[in-house]
Design a protein that fits this description.
By secondary structure, the chain is α/β, with parallel strands linked by helices. The protein is built from nine helices and five strands. Mean pLDDT is 80; it is low at 61-73, 250-258 and 262-282.
Length: 282
């Protein structure tokens, strides 16, 4: 009973954020139609329509709501990204949850991106908005890829979703000694928002998955293509994976705590290989 009540609170916090995203692609879709696609597990149709009405998200409302408000009164984390200069890998992760329309309903995608090299380090696809299906598996993937010791002090920045300040997520970030950060305005999490659109519109919709199994498979492919093949203007037209290699070769700080786990392992292999080479004496 308690667990269901906690999930209901998480879902409620996420709904407003999600509907705002939907309004961009479906500006004239009614709240009732959106409800039939989202099908929230703990919110009935009438209550859903009232939530949309209270937050100015019905079709008749045409105001520009920039602020990611939370009507449930939950205390937010500070925004640690303000005036912060990102200079190294594992310094800042940005994350967001977005929807993906497939068939007659919506599914949910969660991404975690390293802001330094724009690499997607964690992601998940789910048919519900629970923390254990969205933010937690995405963060666990990021930990597996980068190494828990390398994430002490890493800022994890998000906006608007209740899954980022659920007890389970906060407990995990505390265990990792990560720093929770949250945006107050939409533009303060623009990198994560932009990533959502790129993966959905440039990869997943063209790929055309028709079920959850295909979605997960094609999402993995999309992330691989994004990380290893897509050039980024912010990275000097380099790909995220190449940018890491270019900017760690000649960097003064080559300690394992600075580098991604994959780079640490690769450097160890190279150093071991080089140390075994025979040198001809002059």
């Amino acid at each position: 009973m308690l667990k269901r009540r906690m999930y209901a609170q998480e879902e409620l916090k996420q709904i407003v954020h999600l509907v705002r995203q939907l309004r961009v692609d479906h500006p004239r879709m009614s709240a009732r139609d959106i409800y039939s696609k989202i099908m929230p597990a703990t919110v009935g149709r009438d209550r859903f329509e009232k939530i949309c009405y209270d937050n100015g998200l019905r079709v008749k409302k045409k105001k520009n709501f920039r602020k990611t408000t939370d009507s449930t009164g939950v205390i937010r984390f500070p925004n640690y990204l303000k005036d912060l200069k990102v200079t190294r890998v594992n310094q800042v992760f940005v994350s967001d949850i977005t929807y993906f329309e497939m068939g007659s309903r919506f599914y949910y995608l969660t991404f975690i991106m390293d802001l330094y090299n724009r690499e997607i380090v964690g992601y998940s696809a789910s048919d519900n908005m629970r923390t254990e299906s969205t933010t937690l598996p995405a963060l666990r993937m990021a930990v597996a890829r980068r190494g828990s010791d390398n994430l002490k002090g890493t800022i994890i920045h998000s906006d608007g979703g209740g899954q980022y300040y659920s007890d389970d997520f906060k407990s995990y970030t505390k265990e990792l000694e990560m720093v929770n950060s949250m945006a107050e305005e939409v533009y303060e999490n623009s990198h994560a928002e932009r990533l959502n659109g790129i993966i959905k519109n440039n990869y997943l919709y063209p790929y055309g998955p028709t079920n959850m199994k295909e979605l997960k498979k094609m999402l993995a492919k999309a992330v691989l293509m994004y990380n290893t093949e897509k050039p980024h203007s912010a990275l000097g037209k380099s790909t995220p994976s190449n940018y890491i290699k270019i900017n760690t070769i000649n960097n003064e700080d080559n300690s394992s705590s600075y580098l991604p786990l994959s780079t640490v392992n690769n450097n160890y292999y190279i150093n071991r290989k080089n140390s075994n080479k025979k040198v001809n004496a002059i």
